[in-house]
């Protein structure tokens, strides 16, 4: 060996306990659905992982009615302290089965095991643990004592639709606060990533939650539409594209259902000339290549002070070249597979528009696997605000680099988007951080860091990135009748 | 096989901005304070993330042998005797007597008065003789004494000198004094390689580590070295990351590759491999050579040998199957 | 001295946009009658272009108003109350004319409206304390969450309560640092115009509140669909178009406040609902290291 190459270090896929078929979870039982079963594939190999039952409109109705029954008969009447203990149980069981969930998530989603193991699954457990504690403390949440002094009332049945980029994590972001506040849940995982939510259903069953409190219905967008428009659903929570978010908001008009949306983004990550450069490079890399860039809050627009753009780009290229792209189950993989063929095609199409509009494309020289959906980390420089790659959410490992000259110009460019989910700023000057943080119109501002998440820290967007927050005391409002 | 490099070249012409940096006290100060800051949390997060790399099978074996070749096998005790140094040298030559294919280490690292013993013991092996100097470990002596210390070590046959910087002067902001001292020691070293010990545990902040790294590189240090091993914390992964970033940036600006030595506290193969991963991914694969990266260690070697056996024999080895010299 | 009664000088009721009092660009007006059907005045009948101008004014006022200190905003709101108190008799007369009934009831409503400004004046510098948070995240980061104003809010003022209802929906919007485009109660717009005159002479910067009089159903769709409008208060929306307005608001993911179908009892003590409806929460993270 003349140069040191790392031998493959794959996590065993047996840990995932993959089964040939998965059923829906309705009213405490795993059942077949009347919808056309879907085949979920491993995006890293294009092989079919399992066949998964999907819901028909009648199944949606059954699940919603089960949730309504559970809401009325047990869950909304149960003392908060008891609800809390159920959620603590779930948190613990997620920890116990952490590696199984991580491997399954990587298989179904394509994300590297390092991330599913070290980020997604630990955050899932943390989210349940955090919200468990709220269940009996709602009178202290700042929304008043409620009608009986036990805190504000829940809303009823929550219909929740989640995306494919963080399948299990998004399920926990939706389910944990809903249950803590006393609601029951019907959740639709994404069509391409239903598996971990169904294992979570198994955990819900093992934790002995009353039947109907949590229902999981796999399926495509039509199942989601059926769910959010069901008349017995009182609350809708959606995470996904802005386009679908608008459709949902439109379709719920006049229904009186409480709605929260967590939608797309095109975050600016602003680097000043006095930034801690090597850590800024890490933050930029984490900001856009974390989870293959399938992150609504990804730092996809890098705004660099013009005086350091060459130095920063050369450091960035060197660093990105070290990213290891490949088998998601390999413990040394940094960037895994693009979740679907459709998404890969969208990324290809948008990057081609970058070429056509005159941006300069740099592609990591990393080798790519022969099969599966992969896209090499890509950095576009000489990008201007008018280009599609600076305006549209690419949702892939593609960074657009723009420059600015003054703080005012940085703010103007950062805010020049219909979105407003997240933003980053890198500078060693404390007062400038606060100045920037105050002016960037985004729900999350990461200063000298990026892509940090915590159940106690509210997360959500401004403008077309949606409304409502998830996490912390602020996030409870979405599930309380206040 | 020789792991020590040929006589160092005359300092290459520095690019203008680096040459200007050392023109006078004020310039040096401006340069040091103009270096980018280091964010502690970000630096430590990066080091921790990279530490999750999983190195298996052939790549692990390669790493073990490379790490052995990078060891500066060290004894720096008041109780050191010629006998102790001779057995250290024997271990350095043939780390695993039952397995002659195990490479020798890069160097032994000892106090200056024991250099003649090591010279005798290692004659013809190509193994380097590194002597600590300059009033190691505190560096608290008159400059003339420190220079004399280094000169004596080189005269006695040391091929490498591990000096300590004047941390007091550094922390007081007297960068030029620290710089001048390194330059003078470098001159005293003649053809011997100079490793500059920053004693990062006393510099405390990563900003200081980065500044001290650049100071040592500007002054002509062939290696920058984390620690004396006489205080805790000694080498840490994030500190080594910062220093690797410094030599990488130095290379980007000058075309000249300088080395890094992580010393103290690295005891296990797992630790050593994490350092090698950092070398490969932070500085670059070109640094994966004893010419550019060293471990200052004593007990590490035996763990490397045990793990090497485990890899080759397919079962776990034990402490009494490696020698304890 | 003449024994002939002095002829009163009636007021021209105009729009309030960007701190100025223009007539409608359309040149239109409509007659306003009292509760018994007697003519009171001609009010300007705002057009979609007036709505557009009002949104532009609100947008340009947003930066300054949202950046004003909470203490400053509190004093401005308090000043509004002070000036209303000075015009109390005029407001009582207008409210009585609009709603009919006893003057006593109108007095109570005007007093409550003035007190409502006081309530919200005191909130400006407490919103962040009460609704913000320091987040105890699991890592070496300082994380905090602060409420910020949503932006430009289109307010369809209650149709029945021409003053107390109006103040109850406008004060919370600007209390939080938003700017407002208000469509006054269609058939009872006069107190809103007089309130505009109070706002104009208080220290409220021009454009922070813009008041349109006219047909709610004509103006509301333009506001609901306007991309520069960030949020919509449907309190005074005609029932027939409420759902359409909500649908239009989805086009740019506006925040929509949907109060109950029947107009709330504004004399009840206010709560935080109207304030929270037009707040965004921003979470900021920074590492803690040396």
Count the beta strands of chain C. 10
Instruction: Count up the helices of chain C.
Output: 10
* Class per helix and strand makeup of chain C: alpha/beta
Order of helices and strands of chain C: EEHHHHHEEEHEHEHEHEHE
Rg calculated over all Cα atoms of chain C: 20 Å
- Percent of residues in helices of chain B comes to 40-55%
In spatial order, strands of the major sheet of chain B run 1-2-3-4-5-6-7-8
Q: Which two chains have the most extensive interface, and how many residues on each?
A: A-C, 45 and 37 residues
Average pLDDT of chain C works out at 96
Descriptive notes:
The complex is a heterotrimer of chains A (482), B (325) and C (290). Chain A is α/β, with parallel strands linked by helices and 482 residues long. Chain A has helices at residues 57-75, 80-96, 98-109, 113-134, 167-180, 195-206, 221-228, 242-251, 277-289, 309-321, 341-356, 388-391, 407-415, 430-439, 472-476; strands at residues 21-22, 24-26, 29-31, 38-41, 48-52, 157-161, 184-188, 214-216, 235-239, 258-262, 268-271, 301-305, 360-363, 378-381, 398-404, 422-426, 444-447, 466-467. Chain A is built from 15 helices and 18 strands. In chain A, a hairpin with a 6-residue loop joins β4 (38-41) and β5. Chain B contains 14 helices and 8 strands. Chain B has helices at residues 16-21, 25-34, 40-50, 57-69, 82-93, 115-122, 143-155, 167-171, 175-189, 200-203, 206-218, 237-254, 269-283, 300-313, and strands at 71-74, 107-110, 128-133, 160-164, 193-197, 223-225, 259-263, 293-297. In chain B, β2 (107-110), α6 and β3 (128-133) form a beta-alpha-beta unit. The radius of gyration of chain B is 19 Å and the shape is globular. Chain C has 290 residues and is of the alpha/beta class. Chain C contains 10 helices and 10 strands. Chain C has helices spanning 48-67, 70-86, 88-99, 103-123, 127-131, 164-175, 190-201, 216-225, 242-249, 273-276; strands spanning 29-33, 39-44, 133-135, 141-149, 152-156, 179-183, 209-212, 231-233, 255-257, 279-287. A 5-stranded parallel sheet of chain C has the order 7-6-5-8-9, sandwiched between helices. A 3-stranded antiparallel sheet of chain C has the order 3-4-10. A two-stranded antiparallel sheet of chain C has the order 1-2. Chain C starts with 28 loop residues before the first strand and ends with a strand. The interface between A and C is large, with 45 and 37 residues. β17 of chain A pairs parallel with β10 (279-287) of chain C, so a sheet runs across the interface.
């Amino acid at each position: 060996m003349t140069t040191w190459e790392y031998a493959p270090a794959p996590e065993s896929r047996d840990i995932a306990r993959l089964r040939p078929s998965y059923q829906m979870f309705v009213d405490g039982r795993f059942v077949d659905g009347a919808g056309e079963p879907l085949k979920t594939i491993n995006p890293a190999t294009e092989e079919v992982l399992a066949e998964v039952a999907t819901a028909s409109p009648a199944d949606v109705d059954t699940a919603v009615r089960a949730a309504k029954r559970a809401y009325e008969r047990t869950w909304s009447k149960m003392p908060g302290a008891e609800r809390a203990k159920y959620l603590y149980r779930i948190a613990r069981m997620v920890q116990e089965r952490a590696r199984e969930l991580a491997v399954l998530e990587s298989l179904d989603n394509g994300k590297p095991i390092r991330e599913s193991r070290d980020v997604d699954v630990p955050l899932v457990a943390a989210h349940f643990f955090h919200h468990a504690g709220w269940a009996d403390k709602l009178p202290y949440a700042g929304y008043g004592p409620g009608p009986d002094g036990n805190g504000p009332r829940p809303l009823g049945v929550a219909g929740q639709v989640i995306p494919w980029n963080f399948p299990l994590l998004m399920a926990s972001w939706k389910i944990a606060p809903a249950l803590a506040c006393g609601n029951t849940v019907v959740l639709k995982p994404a069509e391409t990533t239903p598996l971990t939510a169904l294992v979570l259903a198994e955990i819900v069953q093992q934790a002995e939650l009353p039947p109907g409190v949590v229902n999981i219905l796999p399926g495509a967008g039509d199942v989601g539409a059926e769910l959010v428009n069901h008349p017995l659903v009182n609350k809708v929570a959606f995470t996904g594209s802005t386009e679908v978010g608008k459709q949902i908001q439109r379709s719920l008009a006049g229904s009186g259902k409480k709605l929260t949306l967590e939608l797309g983004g095109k975050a600016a990550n602003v680097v000043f000339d006095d930034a801690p450069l090597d850590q800024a490079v890490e933050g930029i890399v984490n900001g856009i290549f974390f989870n293959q860039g399938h992150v609504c809050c990804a730092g996809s627009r890098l705004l660099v002070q013009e005086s350091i753009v060459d130095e920063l780009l050369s450091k960035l290229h060197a660093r990105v070249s070290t990213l290891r792209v490949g088998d998601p189950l390999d413990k040394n993989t940094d960037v895994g597979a693009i979740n679907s063929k459709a998404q890969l095609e969208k990324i290809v199409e948008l990057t081609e528009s970058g070429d056509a509009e005159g941006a300069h494309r740099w592609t990591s020289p990393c080798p790519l696997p022969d099969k599966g959906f992969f896209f090499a980390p890509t950095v576009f420089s000489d990008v201007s605000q008018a280009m599609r790659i600076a305006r549209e959410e690419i949702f892939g490992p593609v960074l657009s680099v723009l420059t600015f000259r003054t703080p005012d110009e940085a703010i103007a460019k950062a805010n020049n988007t219909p979105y407003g989910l997240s933003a980053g700023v890198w500078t060693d000057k404390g007062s400038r951080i606060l100045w920037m943080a105050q002016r960037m119109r985004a729900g999350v501002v990461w200063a000298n860091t990026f892509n940090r998440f915590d159940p106690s820290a509210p997360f959500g967007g401004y403008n077309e990135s949606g409304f409502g927050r998830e996490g912390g005391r602020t996030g409870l409002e979405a599930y309380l009748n206040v | 096989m020789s792991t020590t490099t040929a006589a160092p070249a005359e300092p290459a012409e520095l690019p203008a901005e680096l040459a200007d940096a050392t023109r006078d006290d004020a310039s040096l100060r401006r340069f040091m304070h103009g270096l980018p800051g280091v964010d502690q949390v970000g630096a430590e997060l990066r080091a921790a993330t990279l530490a999750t790399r999983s190195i298996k099978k052939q790549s692990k074996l390669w790493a073990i042998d490379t790490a052995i070749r990078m060891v500066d096998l060290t004894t720096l005790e008041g109780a050191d005797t010629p006998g102790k140094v001779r057995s250290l040298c024997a271990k350095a030559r043939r780390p695993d007597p039952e397995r002659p294919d195990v490479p020798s280490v890069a160097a032994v690292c000892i106090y200056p008065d024991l250099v003649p013993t090591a010279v005798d013991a290692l004659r013809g092996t190509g193994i380097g003789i590194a002597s600590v100097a300059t009033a190691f470990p505190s560096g608290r002596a008159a400059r003339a004494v420190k220079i004399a210390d280094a000169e004596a070590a080189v005269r006695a046959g040391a091929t490498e000198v591990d000096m300590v910087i004047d941390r007091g002067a550094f922390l007081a902001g007297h960068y030029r004094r620290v710089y001048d001292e390194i330059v003078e020691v470098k001159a005293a070293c003649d053809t011997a390689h100079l490793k500059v010990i920053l004693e990062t545990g006393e510099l405390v902040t990563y900003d200081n580590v980065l500044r001290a790294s650049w100071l040592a590189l500007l002054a002509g240090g062939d290696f920058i070295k984390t620690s004396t091993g006489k205080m805790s914390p000694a080498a840490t992964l994030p500190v080594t990351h910062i220093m690797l970033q410094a030599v990488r940036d130095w290379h980007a600006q000058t075309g000249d590759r300088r080395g890094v030595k992580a010393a103290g506290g690295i005891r296990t193969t797992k630790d050593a491999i994490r350092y090698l991963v950092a070398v490969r991914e932070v500085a670059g694969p070109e640094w994966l050579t004893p010419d550019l990266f060293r471990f200052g260690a004593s007990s590490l070697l035996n763990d490397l040998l045990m793990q090497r056996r485990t890899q080759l024999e397919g079962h776990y080895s034990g402490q009494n199957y490696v020698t304890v010299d | 001295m003449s024994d002939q009664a002095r002829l009163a000088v009636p007021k021209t009721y105009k729009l309030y946009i960007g701190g100025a009092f223009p007539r409608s660009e359309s040149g239109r007006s409509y007659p306003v009658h009292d509760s018994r059907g007697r003519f009171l005045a001609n009010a300007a009948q705002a057009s979609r272009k007036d709505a557009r101008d009002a949104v532009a004014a609100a947008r340009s006022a947003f930066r300054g108003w949202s950046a004003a200190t909470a203490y400053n905003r509190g004093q401005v709101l308090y000043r509004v109350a002070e000036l209303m108190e000075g015009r109390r008799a005029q407001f009582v007369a207008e409210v009585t004319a609009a709603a009919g009934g006893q003057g006593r009831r109108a007095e109570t409503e005007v007093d409550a409206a003035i007190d409502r400004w006081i309530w919200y004046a005191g909130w400006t510098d407490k919103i962040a304390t009460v609704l913000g948070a320091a987040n105890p995240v699991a890592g070496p980061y300082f994380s905090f969450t602060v409420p910020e104003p949503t932006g430009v809010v289109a307010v369809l003022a209650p149709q029945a309560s021409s003053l107390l209802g109006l103040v109850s929906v406008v004060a919370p919007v600007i209390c939080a640092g938003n700017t407002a485009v208000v469509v006054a109660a269609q058939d009872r717009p006069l107190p809103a115009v007089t309130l505009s005159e109070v706002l104009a002479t208080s220290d409220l910067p021009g454009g922070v509140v813009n008041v349109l009089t006219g047909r709610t159903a004509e103006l509301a769709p333009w506001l609901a669909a306007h991309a520069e409008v960030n949020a919509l208060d449907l309190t005074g929306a005609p029932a027939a178009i409420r759902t359409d307005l909500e649908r239009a608001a989805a086009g740019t993911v506006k925040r929509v406040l949907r109060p109950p179908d029947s107009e709330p009892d504004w004399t009840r003590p206010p709560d935080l609902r109207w304030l929270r409806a037009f707040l965004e929460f921003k979470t900021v993270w920074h590492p803690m290291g040396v």
